[in-house]
Amino acid sequence: xxxxxxxxxxxxxxxxxxxxxxxxxxxxxxxxxxxxxxxxxxxxxxxxxxxxxxxxxxxxxxxxxxxxxxxxxxxxxxxxxxxxxxxxxxxxxxxxxxxxxxxxxxxxxxxxxxxxxxxxxxxxxxxxxxxxxxxxxx
Length: 138
Known about the structure:
This protein is mostly helical. It has helices at residues 5-26, 31-59, 61-72, 74-90, 94-137. It is elongated and about 65 Å long.
């Protein structure tokens, strides 16, 4: 595993705060600056999504099947993680722990990609609102 799970969660927190700050700033900026922010957000979302896709491809078919289940429903993910934690308490097998860590890491990376996509969606909405307001006053 490239990063510790705690570091990945810290990265998620930072990205969520960055998304919040970007939206707050975009609401006060001129249309051109909002468009530049949108392009940066689009690139960051694409990069984060590609990272998740590469992680899944690197592990093979088993990971792809697991990933399909991960994307199916967030509630199911939470239940699966709770079950995994319970199993891990009873099973100290190293491979099992590594697999659970990998699954948690992919879930965190997916969350990061979701935050980046949410940031892009919000910036699109702010941009559209600014455009509509500008046209209304023209």
